[in-house]
Amino acid sequence: MNWWLNLSEFDIVGQVVGGNSAEILIREKADKELELGDLLISEEGNSRLLLQVFELTYGSQISQLSRELMAGITLERTGKDLSIFDSQMRNYVIASVKPVLHIMGGKVLLPKTLPKFFGSLRLVKKDDLFFFEKPDNPIYFGKIRSGSKVLDVDVYLDGFNAFSHHIVIPATTGRGKSNLVKVMLWDVLGANNFGILVLDPHDEYYGRHSKGLKGHPVAKSNLLYYSSNPPTGANTLVINLKSIRHEHFQGLVEFTDAQEDAIKRYHTEYGSDWIEFIVRGEKIEGVKPITLDVLRRKFDNILGIHIDDSGDLQCRNKIFSTTAGSTTTKDIADALEQNKVVIVDTSKLLDEAELLIGSIVIREIFNRYQRYKSEGTLKPKPVAAIVIEEAPRVLGKEVIESKGDNIYSIVAREGRKFQIGLIAITQLISLIPRQILANMNTKIVLGNEMAAERHAIIESASQDLSAENRSIASLDKGEAIITSNFTKFAVPIKIPLFEEFIAKSISNRSKSKTIFTG
Amino acid sequence: MHKFAHLADLHLGANREPELKEWEITAFLKAMNICIEESVDFILISGDLFHANIPDMDVVNKAVKKIKQILEHNIPIYVIYGSHDYSPNETSIIDILHSAGLITKIVQAIVENEELKLQFVTDPKTDVKITGLSGRRLGLEKDYFEILDKESLEREKGFKIFAFHSAVAELKPTYLARMDSIPASLLPKGFSYYAGGHIHEKLEGKLPDFKMINYPGPLFSGYPRDIEQFSKGKRRGFFIVHFNDEVEKVEFKEIRIVDPIYFEYDVSDKSSTQAKKELLNRLQELSVKDKLVVLKIKGELSGGTTAEINSNELRNLLYEKGALYISINKHSLSSKEIETMQIIGDDIQTIENNLFRENIGNIKISASKLKNNSGVKIANELLKTLRQEQKLNEKKKDYEERILKESISILDIEGTS
Questions:
Q1: What ipTM score was computed for the predicted complex, to two decimals?
Q2: Please, is A86 exposed, middle or buried when counting C-beta atoms within 10 Å of its C-beta (0-12, 13-18, 19+)?
Q3: Do A75 and A52 have their domain in common?
Q4: Quick check: B177 and A334 CB within 8 A?
Q5: Which of A9, B108, B255, B316 is packed most tightly, with the most Cβ within 10 A?
Q6: Does some domain include residue A149?
Q7: For the whole model, what pTM was predicted?
Q8: Beta carbon pairs, A and B, within 8 Å
Q9: How far apart are CA A316 and CA A125, in angstroms?
Q10: Residues in B touching A236 (Cβ below 8 Å)
């Protein structure tokens, strides 16, 4: 038969023996070892069906009771030499596979047929995946993975689509989340096509103490790093109190009606100096002293600002200032508009201050992009994306219900219209409401042991991952599945190790000799 | 207690209009007189003493006379180049004055193993150690900061001053957000005083590792934006820094040569005829005698053209009322009737910069340094050079050679002249 003749005996890994369109059963060839996630090909002429293994079970022609008895003889008596006659024929592995793509000539379609009954299957090869092309605005994620085998096929997503439609990275600790983000950002830095803001609570991306983005050949021109303790060449993270507006606290800090009213009064009275006058305890009409005291305490807690013994305004974390940092927000927004990557080291800040800084910067870029849209000048602007760790702090159901929408949830819902996206990283995707997850069109799924989290991932995936529960649990460090509206199927990938990945990009550049005049 | 004067951005020779020219040199003379009266130990100028590396000789003559007088009072003047009077081959007026012993250039550096090592100049009277980095065109001094051996500077004991002519990113005022700048982390730490130049505004900055980064701003500047800021109340002057082992007091000496007045008029929803009539009436009521007047006309006319609000007519009226100088800003004025290509900006330099920025993407070119921001910078600098006029007594051949040489240097290409 034709389908049989197309494959050499060596290539065959199994044969279709039953099942239905959701679960096709394959008998595994004895000397082959199929893995969860393996990609298989069933070929007929110029039509190929791409299938993926999602479950492996034992099959046997011998009844369960007989097998148990034989095991007993081997274990308990002297049956050590006992062997089953023609055992490869009688005992085997049944792989449950699902069809993921139908490749018809040069076209790629969703599968609507079954592979030939009793048809043979082989492992996928590089040439089968010709349709993985480099898009116009590529972001690199890694190489295609079949089980644990890595194929030499690069996986890119179009950054314009992926970033503006948000990316969520659900991952438990130790599964390679930082490595993935570093690889992605390294690639973005070189591409110089997108503006990325990274709020980095662990100070792990710049590479202050290890390899990081600072080592990129274009880091000098395309990477900005803000820290309260900047290394040479980096910017001091300092924000002028005048840059802070009431709306920056929206959904992040709870104010009572009386406090809200007081803030409005101070703003009307003192304009952009409103926080300073509250902290200084300047009394104004219509605001009760107790309300003023509570506001002073709140700003002390969140911003770390207080009045010292000599009456000067001081900031404990040195981030907020009355004299410096007037252009920090603008500088960051400008850099994002110029396709740069901006890392803000928030490792020395409390949660609320970190989120507030993000809120100030994101508002600036959001307002700008809204204005560009209304003026009809948005299209040539780069997509701006914001990397936010522990995303449920701002996108969590409980947070939004209790504090109302914040700029992060607004971006999650409306950012797409304005070319602004989120790259949300979380261990607990189940805390993010479904409506928000539905807006996040790309999910890069790393290994996850928690059943509830896997369930939430599967429920919100762009492709049907209902059969992938076990596969997700078994994803090793650096292995991932990309499920996205912008991929043809849920793509298993192997993310390169950052240190190895960057070794290729860093060559020994010759430095030009400096001649000093001045 | 010792004291020194810290000045910057004097831009002598920047102005062409007689009134501005006069005020510019008067401000300088006045500041120098204050230094003599105050018996400062020395004067430190953080760049752009002159507006160009080869400025108008009439201004140089007046300045040199005053500098000589200062020296007679045993007050040395220490300077660095600014972005305007910088010369890549050390042939600026600053170098000439330095060679003549009238001023002291404090930047003394060598490059060793791709590391820039700065030397200190010690003021003999006070033992103050001064060092610093000059400004360069296109903000290129950043390259020097990046290879600066900070450790050796930080190790030096005593009262130390670091002079520089760059905007520090963390301290830029909002309206200068797009100015080229360096992060504070490029400055060496532990100096008693950081004497800044380049930002045209009085600024006393404080950052976690830097107690005092000060910019005095110009004494008087004729740039339209500076005049506008001045008329809106920004104070002009310089610092006198009192010190012993540490800075004890910083005093700002205001220099006010003329009283300014700022008047803003919004034409929105008015026709050009209505707006002109109303504006003339309003200006009639304005007391402008012996004042520098800044008139800003903004908004969108509902009819007529912007040219119908005739600047000459407005100017004549104000001169008749006794104004000394009038600056009219119509950059934010537009009309519904006539759609013009609008490039937004407060001054000519910003407008040109925005124009280059808008259009650079349309030019196909392979050299990466001519693309994007770097291309805009080079275009700006080239325009500035090509705009220079032949100087008095300069031969045409020398003029052409000078322009060609500077252009080649800007483009960083090998050329024959």
A1: 0.80
A2: exposed
A3: yes
A4: yes
A5: B255
A6: yes
A7: 0.84
A8: 90
A9: 59
A10: 170, 183-185, 207-208
